[in-house]
Design goal:
heterodimer, A: alpha+beta, DNA polymerase, domain 1, 5 strands, 33% helix, B: alpha+beta, Aldehyde Oxidoreductase, domain 4, seven-stranded mixed β-sheet, five-stranded mixed β-sheet, 20 helices, globular
Chain lengths: 159, 810
């Protein structure tokens, strides 16, 4: 895709750090995160917004960063997998994924965790069918989802 | 060793980086001054390249270069080879078409690369690619598998598009057994084409240093040393000592990242040509078009039985699709990984299989999780289940009557393999129990009362994995050995660095191999580090495929630890003033038998590097390596039970329960093994119910995105019941078999046996999509109306009767 249009000046917050940068208006949020911001934990697995590997939080809600244009994040708060917990200080969802072997190759994992956190936060009560339905936007090719579902339920029980 | 040794559910250490976004995949790596590559790909299934005009493209800002197959040919860049030479039954070698990394004169499948455009940015490279004008002369394609041998000839000199016609087994004995049989069960089976779809697309970053003439290639490979070997020995890019291949974190492979592809090969060449790093990452559309696909067989299978349901003979005729070119191991998949597995778990005395492998104008087909063994299991287990129905026997009972018995091992099958051990009935009985097989009739009635159709299906699979031994495989045509390397380097302070030639792209080797070494050396788990995936750090290796990492890679590591212990014993004996044979080693302690004299492993390690009090003639240091060559395959086996419920109004198949009881021998980390089974089942269920790579008659891929190629999502699957039984492998030091592919091998047949049971049909081609199931129900209802009964005929036949060729697609 060609970089068209006048450059945009953007101000937004990523993982609680204020950011200012200039970018072409047709650039996607995921490319800003992975490129100039160096936040490579957010992955790209498809080109039709169906795999969910690029899921991040935009003003607290899960979005696919491959469907968000740069201009849409002006003034917004973006949280990526790097912003929710770190080694030694894991988010409960991250810990549950490790405890219950809810990942193998790890490529879908950041997006899956970001979706799962949003799912738990926005659900009154979660059972197995609700977790399975709630993760419909995220593909995993390794785990058969079995342990992912267990991990999300375990993290939800603590929330 | 405590709670983190062999057999323990140790949490994976690699997870910490993955769950915090600190993994390092190929696309995450950049290099100053790098260019971005976009490949020019054929829009036609078969065409002559008349001319490529890059004039306009090269004028665009940021476009660095445009190169085609002619440029690589001028630099004497060689073809991508196939690593396994299969011979036809007449003794002739298989026919190998030329496959340059970039097509030179002709393109033979949609998506085949014929040029590379390099830009200062990805956007510039894309704009450049859009501006290249290519003149093609379209040629008639041979896109369909069924019509491959009578269609247009794809490659010069390869008649009837046939690569080889291979056979195995005793044809005469098989014919004789069929002539005497009380009953023959026949099926025409389709093993649908699958597109692997690891969630991380393939990628490469190629660097070239003009001063040292060294290449460094970061790429998404399951076997970086094989990549290096092929780039050096066949492609002729550079000698091996000038090539370093690094597979950093790799986001799944499932076979598709074993192969050496045009893209990373071309990226290396281009990096040298332009003197700048070259970065390429596939988008998903490219992955669909150009990753090598899996399966794609048409099979006629017949099972001869006596009146009691005892198997007398099996006859199989398969046409296997190789796609347009021979991929790295393509030729071995429908032969040595397929025909040899047709005995299954049974005593069938006579088997004959013939495989006709053909070229078509489609993407190359090669190993995909299971590679030949799911296809074999599908043939055997669909036949067995169908035979049981035809003879009015319980499908479990017909299997019991034919299982190889525990006291018959080692068991020589009529198709070349010698199974070392197993207890097939133990797995089946446990699976039936866990699936509440006895209670199925009541569940079926309950479903019926709700207007639903319920079915149950079994699959008792066997697989051969941890390919072996090298000498035999090379006699059979393999171009590489099948051993694995393991190096155990004990550091002066007693911590350990393990180097393995196998590669982890989700399997958890950094944890599992550390458990093994911790257990064997008595060193704390967190004092053991595992290094893999870098030809600059690991001496040699063959990578990860065919469920080999524990059985072959793990055994290599064990063998290296045995050498460490042997040397440590000499050092300890000297320091303790004893004879080496009087020194025991247990739980990290060397002790003199019948005394209180002892030394910790760390003390001995330190002494090895600070040899103050050291045996005469012994070299300092404590580092050992092993190349472990397996004596035989390992033979994991098990029983899978699927239960489905079908809504006749919509044709939607719901998988309501799935039980897998597998015998993987000894288990190093049960948590990881269960995870491997879960993932394999999901891919097998995907094959049975939804996945289908479809080319139309014109040779265009019509399932080229996640919009068209459906893979299982969380809501498509139930939680699985997974258990293991254990008969230890008899010929490797860990007693392990291999667990990576079993789920995908056993499950398609189990699911389709359940679906056909629910529908009351003899067969239905995979995938059992809602449309196919609905059509099958409509036509069987219509047939019942005509008084022919629901169990006669196949659905494909019914579709043909309806004049609906479109229905044959998923």
């Amino acid at each position: 895709m060609a970089q068209g249009g006048r450059p945009l000046k953007l101000k937004f917050t990523v993982n609680e750090v204020a950011r200012e940068l200039e970018t072409a208006p047709n650039v996607l949020l995921v490319d800003i995160l992975r490129g100039p911001l160096g936040l490579t934990g957010t992955h790209v697995g498809c080109d039709t917004s169906q795999c969910g590997a690029c899921t991040v939080h935009l003003d607290g809600r899960a979005v696919k960063a491959c469907t968000v244009l740069a201009g849409q994040v002006e003034g917004a708060e973006v949280t990526t997998i790097e912003g929710i917990g770190a080694p030694g200080n894991l988010h409960p969802m991250q810990a549950a994924f490790q405890d219950l072997h809810a990942l193998q190759c790890g490529f879908c994992t950041p997006g899956m965790i970001m979706s799962a956190i949003d799912l738990v936060r926005t659900s009154e009560r979660l059972d197995e069918p609700a977790v399975r339905a709630g993760l419909e936007g995220n593909y995993c090719r390794c785990t058969g989802y079995h342990n992912i579902v267990q991990a999300v339920l375990a993290a939800a029980a603590q929330a | 060793m405590g709670d983190q040794g062999i057999g323990k559910r140790v949490k994976r250490r690699e997870d910490v980086r993955f769950i915090t976004g600190r993994g390092r995949y190929t696309d995450d790596i950049g290099h100053p001054g790098q260019t971005f590559a976009v490949f020019l790909r054929s829009p036609h299934p078969r065409a002559r390249i008349v001319g490529v005009d890059a004039g306009e493209a090269l004028k665009l800002p940021g476009v660095v270069g445009v190169f085609t197959g002619k440029d690589l040919a001028a630099d004497k860049i060689g073809d991508l080879p196939c690593g396994w030479l299969v011979k036809s039954r007449d003794g002739s070698d298989m026919k190998v078409p030329s496959r340059p990394p970039l097509a030179v004169e002709r393109v033979n499948f949609v998506g085949e690369p014929y040029g590379i455009v390099l830009g200062d940015s990805l956007a510039a490279a894309q704009a450049g690619a859009d501006a290249v004008v290519t003149d093609f002369e379209e040629l008639e394609p041979a896109a369909s598998l069924a019509g491959a041998t009578t269609g247009a000839q794809i490659h010069p000199g390869i008649e009837a598009n046939t690569c080889y016609v291979w056979e195995l087994g005793d044809a005469a004995a098989t014919e004789a057994a069929f002539a005497a049989a009380a009953h023959v069960t026949r099926l025409e089976l389709v093993n649908n084409r699958l597109i692997p779809n690891a969630i991380e697309p393939r990628a490469a970053l190629a660097l070239y240093d003009r001063a040292t003439e060294e290449f460094t290639l970061y790429t998404t490979s399951q076997n970086p040393h094989l990549e290096r070997l092929i780039l050096a020995a066949f492609v002729g890019l550079a000698p091996e000592h000038k090539l370093r291949v690094i597979s950093p974190d790799v986001g799944g492979g499932f076979g598709s990242k074993i192969f050496v592809y045009p893209e990373e090969t071309t990226a290396c060449w281009a990096a040298r040509r332009i003197g700048r790093p070259v970065k390429w990452t596939a988008d998903r559309s490219e992955a669909f078009l150009s990753d090598h696909h899996g399966r794609d067989h048409l099979t006629r299978a017949e099972l001869a039985l006596d009146a009691a349901g005892v198997f007398l003979a099996l006859r199989v005729r398969t046409r296997a699709n190789l796609g347009a070119y021979l991929s790295t191991f393509a030729s071995s998949v429908p032969t040595y990984l397929y025909g040899t597995l047709l005995a299954g778990q049974y005593r069938t005395p006579a088997i004959h299989v013939e495989v006709e492998a053909v070229f078509t104008n489609t993407a190359p087909v090669d190993a995909y999780r299971g590679a030949g063994r799911p296809e074999a299991t599908y043939v055997v287990e669909r036949l067995v289940e169908t035979a049981a129905r035809e003879l009015g026997l319980d499908p479990a009972e017909i299997r019991r009557r034919n299982f190889i018995q525990p006291d018959q091992f080692p068991y020589q099958t009529p198709v070349a393999l010698v199974y070392d051990t197993g207890d097939y009935q133990a797995s089946l009985e446990r699976a039936l129990q866990r699936a509440d097989y006895a209670g199925f009739a009541a569940r079926r009635s309950a479903s019926q009362a709700r207007g639903m159709r319920r079915g149950i299906g079994l699959s008792c699979y066997i697989e051969a994995c941890g390919l072996a031994p090298s000498q035999l495989a090379i006699q059979l045509g393999a171009g590489v050995g099948l051993y694995e390397s393991g190096e155990v380097r004990v550091n002066p302070t007693g911590s350990v660095t393990v180097f393995t030639g196998s590669h982890s792209h989700g399997q958890g080797h950094e944890t599992t191999l550390a458990q093994i070494v911790s257990d064997k050396l008595g060193v704390a788990f967190d004092q053991v580090e595992v290094v893999h995936g870098d030809t600059g750090r690991v001496e040699f290796g063959l990578g990860t495929y065919g469920s080999r990492s524990a059985a072959v890679g793990g055994s290599a590591v064990v063998t290296a630890t045995e050498k460490i212990i042997a040397k440590g014993r000499k050092i300890a004996a000297h320091m303790l003033e004893a004879q080496p044979e009087d020194v025991d080693f247990e739980d990290g302690v060397f002790s003199v038998r019948a005394s209180n004299r002892k030394l910790g492993f760390g003390e001995v390690a330190f002494a090895a590097y600070v040899p103050a009090n050291f045996p005469e003639g012994l070299e300092p240091g404590l580092s050992e390596k092993s190349f472990y060559d397996p004596k035989n395959f390992t033979f994991p086996a098990g029983a899978h039970v699927a239960e489905v419920e079908i809504d006749p109004e919509t044709g939607v198949v719901e998988l309501v329960a799935f039980v897998a009881v597998d015998d993987f021998g000894e288990v190093i980390n049960p948590m990881i093994v269960e995870g491997q089974v879960h993932g394999g089942i999901a891919q097998g269920v995907g094959q049975a119910l939804m996945e289908h790579g479809v080319y139309d008659e014109a040779g265009q891929l019509v399932t080229g995105s996640y919009m068209d190629y459906r893979m299982p999502r969380a809501a498509d699957l139930p939680s699985f019941i997974v258990e293991t039984t254990v008969t230890a492998c008899t010929h490797n030091p860990l007693g392990v078999k291999g667990c990576g592919e079993a789920g995908a091998i056993g499950s398609p047949a189990a699911v389709m046996n359940a679906v056909t049971d629910a529908l009351g049909l003899k067969d239905l081609a995979m995938p059992a999509s809602p449309e196919r199931v609905w059509r099958a129900l409509q036509s069987s209802t219509a047939e019942r109306g005509r008084g022919t009964g629901p169990r006669s005929g196949t659905v494909e036949g019914a579709q043909a009767a309806q004049g609906s060729p479109a229905a044959a697609r998923g």
